[in-house]
Design brief:
GO molecular function, one term: [heparan sulfate]-glucosamine 3-sulfotransferase activity
CATH superfamily: P-loop containing nucleotide triphosphate hydrolases
Radius of gyration: 24 Å
Structural class: alpha/beta
Protein name: Sulfotransferase domain-containing protein
Keywords: Disulfide bond, Glycoprotein, Transferase
Largest sheet: 5 strands, parallel
Organism: Strongylocentrotus purpuratus (Purple sea urchin)
Helix content: 25-40%
Number of helices: 13
Strand order of the largest sheet: 6-7-5-8-9
Pfam families: Sulfotransfer_1 (PF00685)
Number of domains: 1
Low-confidence stretches: 13-41, 190-201
Length: 370
């Protein structure tokens, strides 16, 4: 009789264990799940349900099944918010942090629709964006929009006149050095071109789209003549920002991209000041909580981020997200910058000073680095 009872107990436990397993697996879409399969055992892989998709602690998005999307009234649309620049100022960090806000649906990759992929059509652009709940704002980030010619006119045709734009700006010399470091890294990791081109959102094309691409490539070639590019970047930072005579090379994209006021003037011709939030990238590094508060207020969404949402990673030397799951930027963030002489740094700072003063006057806003 004892053997029969023991078999009954063991069988019941096995049945309950099996049912529990399938309940957990089947419910991955609605609760955070933690796995021990991680290189960093102190912060195991986690998945956070965000409504229409899950977010991992590597900031990767995975859409739910069609059944769940329909059940939750998920849909795709043009973005309500664009993070348009500036490059190497913390836009990816901002987007990744913001993407965990319950009222935000942020695209995982850069679509580059309004600069290089416009020929693919608006439907293609929308398809690159995440599914969103009815109460979520859709966010897309492409930092090149800030400096690329003609973006404003294209956006005006497609997007709501009430669109919100976010720009992050860092100390200009620091941004320039970071830009050079980024390009150099790509050069030595089998990048075919010196010019900085992301493969995010690189489309597969139909014959018709391929023909349109040839047409728009000609237009892009003309646009490239209208603003500096990375084609003539040197092997060192100094070679990349100075002319043969030792003057600052204003035709260098590394230099030009840090002349923020030049591009803000253009954007303010198309959008009102209250539609553009300009953030201090240095503050984002040191006080992400305060920056996220500013973004929440600007977008008119509920307060969500608290100081305890962030944790300073001593090893990586920057803040990571600690709630709702632990999530940290990839190792490429925080690359060691090349050593640049004080003479060059001072020369560049003097060059940017009048532009920085003009920027503050234009925006009626001060920055920690001016």
């Amino acid at each position: 009789m004892w053997n029969n009872r023991r078999q009954f107990i063991l069988g019941s436990l096995l049945f309950l264990g099996t049912v529990t397993f399938f309940m957990i697996v089947g419910d991955l879409r609605v609760v955070g799940v933690t796995s021990v399969h991680s290189k960093d055992q102190s912060h195991p892989v986690s998945i956070h349900d965000h409504g229409c998709y899950t977010i991992s602690n590597t900031f990767a998005n995975t859409a739910h099944s069609n059944e769940v999307l329909e059940e939750r009234s998920c849909s795709k649309s043009v973005p309500n918010v664009l993070i348009i620049g500036s490059k190497k100022c913390g836009t990816t960090t901002l987007k990744n942090f913001l993407g965990f806000h319950p009222q935000i649906a942020a695209a995982e990759t850069e679509a580059h629709y309004y600069d290089t992929n416009i020929f693919m059509g608006l439907d293609w652009f929308i398809d690159q964006l995440p599914y969103a709940l009815p109460n979520q704002l859709v966010v897309e980030k492409t930092p090149r929009y800030l400096v690329y010619p003609g973006v404003q006119e294209k956006m005006k045709k497609d997007l709501s006149p009430d669109i919100k734009l976010i720009i992050v700006l860092r100390e200009p010399v620091t941004r320039a050095i970071s830009d050079f470091t980024h390009i150099t890294f790509k050069r030595y990791t089998s990048e075919k071109h010196l010019r900085d081109k992301r493969t995010d959102g690189k489309p597969s094309m139909s014959p018709e789209q391929a023909a349109l691409r040839k047409h728009f490539k000609k237009i892009e070639a003309k646009n490239n003549q209208r603003y500096p590019n990375y084609d003539k970047m040197g092997l060192t930072f100094e070679d990349s920002v100075l002319t043969d005579k030792g003057d600052i090379d204003v035709n260098s994209a590394i230099i030009d991209t840090s002349i923020y006021v030049k591009y803000l003037k253009k954007w303010l011709k198309y959008y009102s000041r209250d539609q553009i939030l300009v953030l201090d990238g240095e503050q984002l590094i040191l006080e992400p909580y305060q920056i996220m508060q500013k973004v929440e207020k600007f977008l008119g969404i509920e307060p969500y981020f608290l100081p305890e949402n962030f944790h300073f990673n001593v090893q990586k030397r920057f803040y990571c997200l600690s709630q709702p799951i632990y999530a940290c930027m990839k190792p490429s963030k925080g690359r060691v910058h090349p050593s640049v002489s004080d003479e060059i740094v001072d020369k560049l700072k003097q060059f940017y000073t009048p532009y920085n003063i003009e920027l503050e006057e234009l925006l009626n806003q001060t920055f920690s680095w001016t």
